[in-house]
Amino acid sequence: MRSAAAPSPQEQEAEAVEFRLTDLSRFRIPEQVALGPHGDTVAIIVREADTKADRWRTVLALADGAGALDTIDENDADAACWSPAGDQLAYVAKAPGSLGTTIRLWNGATRAVTDLVPGLTAVSHLTWSPDGSELAFVAALDTAAEEPAAGRRCKPPTVVRELGYKVEGIGLLPAARRRLCVVRVGTGAVRCLTDDKMDVAAPSWSLDGSAVTFAGSAGRGSAVRARLFSVDAAGGETRQISPWEGTVIWTGRSPDGRLFFAGQRTLGPCQRSTLYLLPDDSVEPVDLLSGFDRRLMASNRGTTPAAVFLDDKILFCAREAGCTWAYTVSLANGEVSPWLTGESTVIQGMSAADAAGTIALVLSDAHSAGEVHMSDLRKAEPRRITDLNSWAAHARTGVAEGISFRAPGRAEVHGYLLRGRPAGIDGPTLLDIHGGPDNAWRPNFSPHYLYRQVLVDRGWNILLLNPRGSDGYGEEYMRSPLGRLGFSEEEDFLLALDCLVRDGLATEGLVAVMGSSHGGFMTNWLTARTDRFAAGVSMSGVANWTSLYGTSWLGPVSVPIMLGGTPDEVPAQYAASSPLTYVKGVAAPTLLIHGERDQMTPIGQSEEWFTALRREGRTVEFVRYPSGGHLFMYNGALSHQLDYGRRVIEWLSRHVEGVGLGRAGTTRRQDSE
User: Fold this and answer.
1) Which of 277, 328, 401, 514 is the most buried (most CB within 10 A)?
2) pLDDT for 503-543, tens place per residue?
3) Cα(224)–Cα(246) distance, integer angstroms
4) What predicted TM-score, i.e. pTM, was given to this entire model?
5) Any long-range contacts for 143-149 (C-beta under 8 Å, 24+ apart)?
6) Cis before residue 437, ω within 30 degrees of 0?
7) How far apart are CA 475 and CA 466, in angstroms?
8) Which of 539, 450, 526 is nearest to 493 (CA)?
9) Smallest Cα–Cα separation from 641: which of 655, 628, 654, 622?
10) What are phi and psi of 219, to 5 degrees?
11) How far from the centroid of its chain's Cα atoms is residue 5's Cα?
12) What is the pLDDT, as a whole number, of residue 661?
């Protein structure tokens, strides 16, 4: 299936329009959809460039079934949801002239539901009461917040007493936990249903509107154990409804009132997430996807439902290789069946109007950065209703081809290849490594990787491999690197390079490696342990797992899972899996790219790697981006995104293109695992 009428290869070649890095600011990307209950109007959260402010913003637009688009709010709108009657649209947006956020309503005109409540921040997870009179939401309410005293030149110090005190994209968290709140739509009166003793997420109403179910935890952040609770909507005592513990990203009620939720029982990376049913007569939830060896895909911000109820089935999305497909699971027998697939289809959002039997979908594929489609909920025959990026329809797009590699006695390794030249022609190749490790490269077109299109036009082949640890290939495949991080991925990458060289798709001596996050770790790792690479670009990478354990916002949870224990429990494993152990082996000129405000892999990781490389006399440049977070190359300042893309192309051009051929590659296996 294609999400847009894609031009044929012959038409593309005839047009011969090349992408430029500056085209990034021209894209409009649909991120969320909310379909009205009558199935005739779609609210769309569209991400677009604000070049004057040098940033991305999100606007709220409405589209009818014919695709006519009308923007109704440009103030960083988020989390749109329709009232049960379909006469009002609620959403979160920045208050004009303020840094705060408000809940707003649109019903032909826009008005604020809530004023700027002092201390109310991080508003999310909007959900309507069944009668449409109230909205439940999650927000932090820091009643202790105060302005600096008159004449004080700086903020007072922050006191930290527990883990989970910072988070990526925000930094230091306020002292207050997120509470469950309800606002009366007619009056704007806000009441809090929970106190500051637990952190709240994923609320949903009971069918009669008398109670709200939610996930609550004693800690803060996304990597803490949560339990399921219920509270009277008018206010009252909170009661736990199940002893189940794990992560919960969504709760919802079926038309007959049964409670479903999505999450994972075990904390941390490389874990399977699934759908659960909590029966009325049992406190132990039922795993609805127990026989389905793929990871559920859903938003943890309450912007996209994890499930859509369809007669006696549930519709959900899961990763399949690099794609995201839709499936149904039968509530009668647990049978899982594909609903919407496609060789490059990535479903990025969905919203259903059950009564109308209609669903809205955000679909991306090899030729599209994302468009909104409508479909009959039971037939899965989507038709595109938006044309947000018509200007790019005839650009020359490098299409990711599926490619697989296998070694005797090992699992098949799958990925994608962007070809800039045919087999048998010498030229440069880039190994581009994804983050995670429990993530996967996708075959859909993304404007955030325009450097690839530029390189392909210059004759580069680009390998996007999904090594062991990637999701979309089953739980065993995803969990296989745990306890031997770096080593299994190295085997997969070198196998793939050997095969590309053998097949004339890569030339020894003209291979570069780059990646972000876990991909930055593997860039550091591979350039230290092999001499296969003429250059490396490490973005937001890891050099030292011991220091990352104590400084990353997810370090105390994620790192012990990946390495098999804490630094004091398995110190040898931390040393064996840290690139710093092998730094003397680095020969490749290395470009380091890092955001100053990265809380996932703090910039100290690249500082350690830079210092080590300089002490060894290696060629290295270190580029630090002010205000940049872990994913600044996707959501940071537009000028920073353009700058990093230019630097990547320039670095690879300088150190790879034109380098002499015939360099033999070997692997340094010092200090084996």
Assistant:
1) 514
2) 999 999 999 999 999 999 999 999 999 999 999 999 999 99
3) 7
4) 0.90
5) 143/118, 143/119, 143/176, 144/119, 144/175, 144/176, 145/118, 145/119, 145/174, 145/176
6) yes
7) 14
8) 526
9) 628
10) -90, -170
11) 27
12) 39
Going by pLDDT thresholds of 50, 70 and 90, the confidence category of residue 356 is confident
Which DSSP helix (H) or strand (E) runs through 178? strand 178-184
- Cβ contacts of residue 257 below 8 Å, gap of 6+? 206, 207
Burial of 412 by CB count in 10 Å (0-12 exposed, 13-18 middle, 19+ buried)?
exposed
Instruction: Write out the two tokens for 153.
Output: 């030149």
Q: Which residues contact 301 (CB under 8 A, 6 or more apart)?
A: 78, 79, 124, 125
Lowest mean pLDDT among 141-150, 155-164, 324-333, 441-450: 141-150
Burial letters for 254-278: b for 16+ Cβ neighbours within 10 Å, e otherwise?
eeeeebbbbbbbebbbbbbbbbbbb
C-beta separation of 225 from 217 below 8 A: yes
Determine contact, residues 363/31, Cβ cutoff 8 Å: no
Other CB atoms within 10 Å distance of the CB of residue 156: 9
Tell me if residue 652 falls in helix, strand or coil. Answer: helix
Nearest of 496, 532, 534, 538 to residue 519 by alpha carbon: 538
HSE-up (13 A, CA, CB side) for residue 176: 20
Residue 422: both structure tokens together: 């045919």
What is the DSSP secondary-structure string of 8-37? PHHHHHHH-BPP-GGGGGG-EEEEEEEE-T
Residues 289 and 333 sit within 8 Å (Cβ to Cβ): no
Identity of the amino acid at 250: W
Task: Encode pLDDT of 493-505 as tens digits.
Answer: 999 999 999 999 9
**Is 118's pLDDT higher than 70?**
no
Structure tokens at 657: 């293109």
Tokens (6 digits) for 650: 């320039």
Burial class (CB in 10 A: 0-12, 13-18, 19+), 599: buried
Contacts of 442 (CB under 8 A, 6+ apart): 322, 323, 324, 346
∠ Cα 241 242 247 (to 5°): 115
Residue 7 has a CB neighbour count (10 Å cut-off) of 17
Alpha helices in 564-603 (DSSP H): 571-576
